[in-house]
Amino acid sequence: MQLSKLALVAVFILYSLTGTSQGDTIYVDSQADCPGDGSQSNPYCILSTAIRAAASGDVIIVKNGFYSESLVINQQITITASDGPVIVGRWPQGTIVDKWISLGGGHGPLGSPTSEERNASDGSGARIQDFEHGTIRLQTIPAPLTFFQHNMALIGGPWFTYNGTERDQVPSSLIDHLRREAPDIGGLSEVFYDDERDEIRRGLGDVYPFTVDAPEEQGTHEDGGLLLLSKHPILESHTTIYRPCHGIDCEADKGAIHARIRVEAQGDYDIFLTHLQADGSSEAWETIKAQHSDLYRFIQAHRDPKRPALLMGDLNTVGAISNQYDELISRLNHPEDLWLTTGDGTAGYTSGDPVNTESFEDGVSHSINDPNRHRSGLRLDYFLSWRGSQFWPTFQNTHLQILQSSPGRDISDHYGLKTEQIDLKSFTVDIRRRIDVTLALNELRCLTLTTGSGPGEPHASRGNDHPELQLSYTSANGAINMLNTGELGAIDMGESQIYEDRFTMRIEDPGAWLEVRVQGWEVDVNEDDYMGESVIRLERIELLELIGRSATYGMPYLTGHDGEWGVTVRITVEESSKAVRK
């Protein structure tokens, strides 16, 4: 059976749909590392990505599993299930069955259901369901939280020209808007001048007592232009500067901010704010792709994988250009795009609207409700959300906001965005199995060279580093082990080393938790420079949910001797042949 133009939006089971196609073969596995390239050794993790990459006559071979997608097929291709049923479609989100499917369904660590879903007997309102190897408990927690973001276009200095005409009125107009609407979190980009950021902070200090400023390295007029505002306490924060850059943007210290906030009755939340490379050239697009990857490494390094994370900002990636959007979503490991899931159904243009441009740059007056707005433009600004393993957020009402510095005059050449979280789905999963764990050093990426490779020199002028790493673990049952890599060879800024299975350790059932530690040294002729250490701790439930699978974890960055290094480890979990853990 060959598939012609067809939109599939309901759940269907694919055993084998075969035809006479004679094209290339593309492979898909929902459990593979994202994004993949479609080869047998590195399959795509998303079926719709494979369909978009396919040409007429190609064959797509899909590994058994669950694919929560809606598919549009508009050419002659053949799709075949390789080794069992493939279930594709949308099912109720944030439910016990949704969580079970995310763990692999009947092929996952819980096995098949053994009971109907029921109310918990403790009167909490929770729902419970039993499975062959454990249970899932779901509690819905009311969790109202609002987020606002805006590219303010407050550029200037020796490298950039401000394009608007009412700059002096912009900070006060923004302050008035935020005092009136008072979202919980605000994320601003292109506020490059320190005095304007200070004015905004002062004007909102009683509403947003907690802030994180832009990463800055070069000077007053060339910092990253980011400002994150929070009503809620910030427990910790981090910043990074993107080393891949192109053209005049290299003068702007563009980067990202992370803030872990604590919300009463909700717990901790990881918020990320960024602004990526501008310029529509092909060379700039290669830089943007590299920044996508470095951004995801930054997110991996600092988010708590058990809890939700939200990214906001101007990503300079056009939502309507499929190859750009696919690159963004794949490199960020498939977050939920809140405009697509909770927006108003329009294109969501945030920049490039001619009405907005006239109002901001040319002095032509347009009301906020001008009917000619939103007819064309680019979607460059995003809210992207990741579920945690134990807490899943629910959002609604993502929408554009138009701010004006005076009647008829837009505040920026971008529109603002706002979204609302309404609740958290809290999952408690009990899996009664013994496990064995394989720990592997996966990747080392040099984001910034150490000063040992060229003391006093600008980052881009330093020579190569020669790193050496030590990987170790401690488990709850008292097991301790470590391995040293030895010198790993020369690596330059922006380069990565992939180790695959070169450095691995096997761990018998670790008990209640597993702590993983990485330390690094930059090997010098006279004395090695300590690059620092990085630690993550995985609770047993996180490991149990990985039975039969592998996952890549970002370690907090190594930052010794003025360097910045991203390290990832790969955790593979298998069911132990020993007796089931009671």
Assign the CATH class of the largest domain: Alpha Beta
Structural category is mainly beta
**CATH architectural designation of the largest domain:** 4-Layer Sandwich
**Rg estimate, integer Å:** 25 Å
- Reported by name, the CATH topology of the largest domain is Deoxyribonuclease I, Chain A
- Describe the global form: globular
Number-wise, the strands total 34
Helix content: 10-25%
Descriptors:
eight-stranded mixed sheet, Deoxyribonuclease I, Chain A, 34 strands, 15% helix, six-stranded mixed sheet, 9 helices, 582 residues, 4 domains, mainly beta, disordered N terminus
Structural write-up:
- The chain is mainly beta and 582 residues long.
- It folds into 4 domains: 6-88, no CATH class; 96-132, no CATH class; 141-430, 4-Layer Sandwich (Deoxyribonuclease I, Chain A), CATH 3.60.10.10; 435-575, C2 domain (Immunoglobulin-like, Sandwich), CATH 2.60.40.150.
- 15% of the residues lie in helices and 39% in strands.
- Strands 10, 11, 12, 13, 14, 15, 22 and 25 form an 8-stranded mixed beta sheet that branches.
- The protein is globular.
- The model is unreliable at 1-11 and 453-462 (pLDDT under 50).
